[in-house]
Amino acid sequence: MQVSTRMDADVLMVKLETPRLDAANAVDFREALADFVDQGHAKIVIDLESVEFVDSSGLNVIISTLKRMGRRGSLSLTSPQPPVSSLLNLTRLDRVLNIFSSSEQALTELTA
After folding, report:
1. How far apart, in whole angstroms, are the C-alpha atoms of residue 108 and residue 104?
2. Which of 44, 52, 53, 72 is the least buried, fewest Cβ under 10 Å from its Cβ?
3. How many Cβ atoms are within 10 Å of 69's Cβ, its own excluded?
4. Separation CA 108–CA 23 (nearest Å)
5. Helices 56-69, 26-38: crossing angle, 10 deg rounding
6. pTM of the model
């Protein structure tokens, strides 16, 4: 699993650089996100631009990270590909999470 991170103001941008978020890499990604939350990052944006497929394990990572953050912060997604966007709509996670069309839009909204 390849992940890159960068800080922009008080927002941690996490870019998943793999075409799949599934059972094969979900545990590693969950642990990485848990570490970021435990380090005190209150605003986390997951960039899904490279991700073409998410299974239930991948959805579980997003939900468990959201729960771990609780009211202490916000978890947002950006740049989901059409199949991933459809899955987020189908599971109604689009009603729970902020989903932005680009990293720039996310940063504009979250740092305003």
Report:
1. 6
2. 72
3. 19
4. 33
5. 10
6. 0.94
